[in-house]
Every structure is written in C-alpha cells, then in structure tokens.
C-alpha cells in the first residue's frame, strides 16, 4: 500500500491488536490482512468503521464478518500458495480477497446476484485478479473446478453439505460455522485416505446458509 492509503495505519493496528494479540500467527494470513484494503469492501458511509472489531452490514441483509473471525477461519485452512480454494458466501468479497492473496486460485460462490456484482466490483477496485465470483447455490459446490484443497463456508450451515465434502481433495480442509440459525460452532473437516475427521473450535454467529443443502428461506419457513 502507498502513503496515499488513508487507512494503512488503522489496518496495521487492526492486525496487531485484534488479530495477532489474540493468537493468530500464520505469517501469510497476517500479511494478507495488512495489505487487503478492507475499507474498499464496505459501503462508502461505513468506511471509517472498516477496521473496527466487529462485523458490518453490506446491504441485502448480509454482513462482512468481524476481522478476527475472518483471520481465524483463514488460518484454520492451513493454506499454501498452490492450493485451490472454494469459498461459499462471497458477501463483500473481502474474505475471497484475502484468500486470493495467499493462494493462486480462488472460486467464490454467492447466491444473491446483486451481492455478487458488488463483490466483483470491490475485488476489482482492490486489484485482486485471481478470484472468480460465481452466482449460485454454494451448498452444491462448484464441481467444474473441484477438487479443492481448501473450502470455506462463510454462512451458518445446519450441517456440512455433502457435495462440499465430495469436492474436497485428499488432504483437503473445510472450515464452516455449523449449528442453528442463531449460533454456531466453527468446525474444521480434514479428508485423509477418504476418511473425514472433524474438530470443533469456538462459537460464532453468521447469517444463514440458504440452499438445497442448507437452510430454507425464512419466507418459505413461515408459510409452512
Ligand atoms: N465472506 C463474506 C465477506 O468476506 O464479506 C461474508 C459472507 S456473509 C456473512 C454470508 C454470505 O453468504 C451472504 O452474502 C449470503 O448471501 C451468502 N449465502 C448464503 N447462502 C448461500 C449459498 N447457498 N450459496 C452462496 N452464498 C450464500
């Protein structure tokens, strides 16, 4: 970033105080968070809040997650440069941008076309060119580019969608918030020798993953 970046100082402080001080230590994750301009991924009137320790609304009832949670989930993927990564829930595109700084290839799926369009714009403004944002139901994954070494779901899932487990490469890691619509646990699956092991980390709170292998829309729930 150049001196012209008005938020560089705040961003570095965010990494030191909110991320490193709480135990995230992967140098690639920390460096990505120091360089990706988070303020370009929030609505203009919220830019001054972009480096605070909290999620923010991005329109369409969706959110950009708290920086610390983004960092923890990224670290749990244990990425290396050559990994292929799938993100489910593009939102603002910020998480995908970080992933794109760490690995060569990222596919991100977003179910809401207008949210996906804004994510693409944000990524372009931030100069991230190795992320493709696709509109679709991410609970079905994206078989066209499978298998993936890393899969991250950034919306609350009732369980890990089976197609995503199938699209995980041997040795691949999947990180997701799994629970009910109000509160979830962060879960990491690792696929080894065709077997999948699961580890649970702390509690989190995400907007719902809506789709064939996720939740139904509240609108339809209410009608039933
Ligand atoms: N990763 C995002 C970021 O960096 O800003 C934050 C994601 S936001 C918490 C969750 C996103 O998941 C929303 O944009 C929502 O529309 C999307 N979503 C929900 N269900 C989905 C599905 N089945 N497939 C793809 N996206 C989905």
Automatic annotation (TrEMBL):
One of the GO biological process terms: methylation
GO cellular component: cytoplasm
Family note: Belongs to the methyltransferase superfamily. L-isoaspartyl/D-aspartyl protein methyltransferase family.
PROSITE patterns the record matches: PCMT
EC number(s) stated in the UniProt entry for this protein: 2.1.1.77
GO molecular function terms noted in the UniProt entry: protein-L-isoaspartate (D-aspartate) O-methyltransferase activity
Name of the featured protein: protein-L-isoaspartate(D-aspartate) O-methyltransferase
Alphabetical keyword list: Cytoplasm, Methyltransferase, S-adenosyl-L-methionine, Transferase
Keyword Transferase annotated: yes
InterPro entries assigned to the protein according to its UniProt record, in alphabetical order: PCMT (IPR000682), SAM-dependent_MTases_sf (IPR029063)
Location of the protein in the cell: Cytoplasm
